[in-house]
Amino acid sequence: MESRTLGRSGITVEGLGLGCWAIGGPFSDKGGFMGYGSVNDAESLRALECALEMGARFFDVAGVYGCGHAEHLLGQAIAQYPEVKIAAKFGYTFDETTRVIGGTDISAPGIRLSLEQSLKRLGRTHLDIYQLHLFDLSIEKALEVAGVLDELVQEGLIRAYGWCNEQPDTITAFQLGSDASVVPILLNVLEGNATLPAFCAALDLGVMARRPLGMGLLSGKFQKGHQFAENDMRTRFKWNLESGKQAKQLAQLEAIKELLTTGGRSLVQGALGWLWAIHPQLVPIPGFKTVAQVKENLEALQFGALPPTAMHEIKQILEGDA
User: Radius of gyration (Cα) for the chain, nearest Å?
Assistant: First the structure.
C-alpha cells in the first residue's frame, strides 16, 4: 500500500486507516445510545482478520467505543501483528460492564489511567497516536493536557498526539504551544472544511479524516423511508431521510453519484478518492462492521484519488446547491 508520513510525527502509515467505532457496538450516555447499532463480534473479528490479510496496518479506535469493547476486539485481532500502528482516543470515563459513559476526565492521573487501560485492552506497550477526544475545551485547558501528553511521549508510552478539532485558530495555537503533530478532522465530500488539510500540512501536521463516509450516508445504502434501530445513534440524533439535513445530503449524493463512481469506483471508493484528491497526504479512517465493507474500503486504494475533472464538476454542483 502507498504510504504517507503523518507530518512531523515521522510516523508512516498506509494511505487509508480503518476506524473501529462501529465494531464496538451499542453504548450510551445520559442522552441515549451511541454507536451504530448491534454488531456480531465473530463477524467483526473476521473483518479485522480480512483487513490484516489485505495489508492494513493502521487502525483508529477509542477507549469509549463500546466502552472498551472495540479495543478488546482490535487487541485480539492484532496480537500477532506487532507492526500494526494504532491511533487511540481518550477523555471519557465509562463502565465496561454496563457500557455506560460516566463523564470526562482529563486530569493527569485520569489521562494516565485511560492510557494504561487502553494499552492493556490492546495488548500493547505503547500507542503510536493518542488523541484528545473532547471537542469543546478552551485552548488553555487543551494545552494543560498537552503538557501531560508531552511527558508520555518522553516516557515512550506514546509516539505522537493530537486533538480532535476543526478550528484553524485553535489548531495553530495547540501545535505552537506543544509537540502535537497530528490533527483528526471531520471531513467528507458533503461535510467539513476542505481547506483544512492543506492548512495543517503547511504547519507540518499530519491529517486524518474522521467520518469520511458521512456515518454511512455516502455508501448509498440508505434511501427515503429507511428506519434505524433504536440502539443506533442515528435514531438518537433524529436522522430523517425524508426531510431536513440528511434528505438534502441524499439529494446531493444523487447529483454527484456519477462523478464519484468515475472509473468503476463504488460510491464508497469515490468518497475516499475525493478525500485523497483534496490532499495527497490525507489519511481517511472509514469504519466497518463486515468483511465486505473492509474489502470495499481497502480496494479504494487501487483506484486512488478522483481525477481533477471529476473534482471540478463535483465542486460546481455542490456549490450551486449550497
Answer: 19
Looking at the domain assignment, is residue 119 inside a domain?
yes
Q: Give yes or no for residue 177 having a pLDDT over 90.
A: no
Q: What is the pTM of this model?
A: 0.96
Count: domains in the chain: 1
Q: What grid cell was written down for 2?
A: 502507498
**Is 257 in a helix, a strand, or coil?**
helix
91: left (phi over 0), alpha (psi -120 to 50) or beta: left
DSSP state of 216: G
> What's the domain range around 193?
3-222+278-304
30 against 179, higher pLDDT: 30
At 205, list the grid cell.
Answer: 501536521
Question: What is the number of helices (H) and of strands (E) in the chain?
Answer: 11, 14
Residue identified by cell 445510545 is: 33
CATH of the domain at 140: 3.20.20.100
- 271, part of any domain: no
Cα separation of 178 and 290, whole Å?
Answer: 38
**Which of helix, strand or coil describes residue 191?**
strand
3-state secondary structure 259-290: HHCHHHCCHHHHHHHHHHHHCCCCEECCECCC
